[in-house]
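Request: Mind sharing a record?
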Amino acid sequence: MPEPLTEHPAGRVRTWLAHHGFSIVASLGRLVQRPLASLLTITVMALALTLPAALGLALENLARLQGSVQASHDVTVFLVPGTPAAQVEALVARLRARTDVQQVQRVSPGQALDHLRREPDFAAAIDALGEEAARAALPEVLHLVPRGDASTLVASVQVLPGVERVQYDAVWQQRLQHWLALGTRLVQVLAVLLGLGAVLVVGNTVRLDIQARSEEISVLLMLGASEGFVRRPFLYLGLWYGLAAGALALALLRVIGILVQPPLDALAASYGSRFTLQGPALPDSLALLLVAMLLGWLGALLAVGRHLRENRPMEE
């Protein structure tokens, strides 16, 4: 009797690769055949990806803005009104000799008075008070540009003779750091929750597709098809959903960046800083696409796995 035919291992590999290629094309075709349903699923999933990505991107840019503002933030030293000019000059020379001071700018009472006169409200008050009295009430002001951390500088300048008050608002920077840390944690929690939502959305869409093909799946299983053979087209369908949603999320992030840039320019200018909003870098964009595809694949895996467990042929 002739020996039974057995398939060569190379033939099995070619068959396996051919079915993968067929599943990729067929799943894409099923996605295109239902444009409205597919668009709704992709849009919902893209919004779920865009929200945490946009918040995370905003936190990254806010951290950059904080560093830019902090680098340009100076220390303002108010001297006691009526301090002799010789003492002021000596103090300026002493501060310029410090290694932790990059620049010292002196603002005399006369310069401050001229600056205040440019404001209509202050000009009226100066005229009512009298120029000499207003000049005598204004102190000498020194603007210091520190090198590095200004904490030590502020503490040492505060005790110098003739110094009445040192203004360096570092508290807001510490508070901003705490807010950034809190925002980062909230973004992480939100990303997990919305990621689960995206998995459920894709899973429900794939489940509807599975139900429409339930008879076909049953026939394949009765003919001896493996669960991997049945599962494969739906997994690729989930990958297509994820890829399309990730691409749409990147496009939405780009639009958000264009809309946010003008008010951000005004905010940065108010702090004397030039700041440009940075979108997701190429590695971040690729990571977003991979995460979106993973979520789509996971949603499809859960849906088809449940169907196969519920409809597995009973063994005699």
Observations:
- The longest helix spans residues 227-270.
